[in-house]
Amino acid sequence: MDHENVKVLKISHEAFDPSEVTKMVLFKSRDAVLHISFVLNLPQHPGQDKILIFKIVDSQPELAKELTLSSKVNSICVGAAIQNSGYEISKQFYADNSYYIDVADTNLDSNPLMDFHDDFGLENEEAAKKKEPEFLVVQTMDKKLSKVPVADGQDIAEMLEMPTLCSQIQAAHISGSECIIGFNQQQMRLYINDKIFSNECTSFHVSQTFLSFINSTQGLSHELFNYDLNKQLPKPNGTSAGGADLPQHPRLDESGNFNIRAVERGSKIVTVDPGTRTVLQMPRGNLEGIHPRIILLKKLIEDIENLNYAKAFKALRQHKIDINLLYDVNPE
Fold this sequence. Notes:
Elements: E1 21-28, E2 34-41, E3 49-57, E4 60-69, E5 73-78, H1 80-83, H2 98-101, H3 112-115, H4 125-130, E6 135-140, E7 144-149, E8 157-161, E9 168-174, E10 177-184, E11 189-192, E12 195-198, E13 201-207, E14 210-215, E15 221-228, E16 260-264, E17 268-272, E18 278-281, E19 287-290, H5 293-305, H6 309-318, H7 325-328
Antiparallel strand pairs: 1-2, 2-3, 3-4, 5-6, 6-7, 7-8, 9-10, 10-11, 11-12, 13-14, 14-15, 15-16, 17-18, 18-19
């Protein structure tokens, strides 16, 4: 490592107390400005938390926003506009995922996050996406989700209430609508908005258009699922045992299904890089990278459609995929 190029960022502000920091989020805004968000405990107000958002300008932190929440923060993530998840195809190709997008009638009546995509037209879709506000998503101890705009001068707004407190949350675009994916590690439950998606989940990650998660099983291996968030997601068929509304996920013994593959028992997802690699941590602690076939095929098709034949050909050889895919993508 070249230590001469290493820079130490020092944050000095009267509102910032490093000893009271409980959570931190690092992200880049749409204009490529680096931001750091901190959640701070308030000793003088035990039931409240403070959020500070700093933007880094010329290697110096500047306080962009400061606000106090009336409840403690349980988890925090960036909004999907920042993460840019699920926003790579036009609305005309979105599958119907209204079961997950539409929150229950018993939830909050006002849900501005879930309906601001409804007026997208195909001709001005890109312009509408660029105007989408950037914000953080926080879950407070009352299980409610709220959005915290990054820009100053905008107030915090409630979104919806999750069925449980989530140890991890991530925002993602599902068929063009922004949804929150929450994970309760203790209960091993994965939620999309207020609907349960898995009750055997051990870890998950959202990257671009895919939701990846690992399910625990009774066998010698665990199951890694990868779902394209712009295609139809599995949902309950109404016949689950005990009346539980659980989606019908594919099984390992189903041939030709690329949404599922076996991984070593005890594996957990560390991250999914912007390419095709999923990094797993094994029970022994070592890291391993795999390339799920469904993610790989989508990337290959994108390269072929964009005329990046050399890149696609190299990937086909590397992953031992039939080279006829170069022709089959668009025979005409």
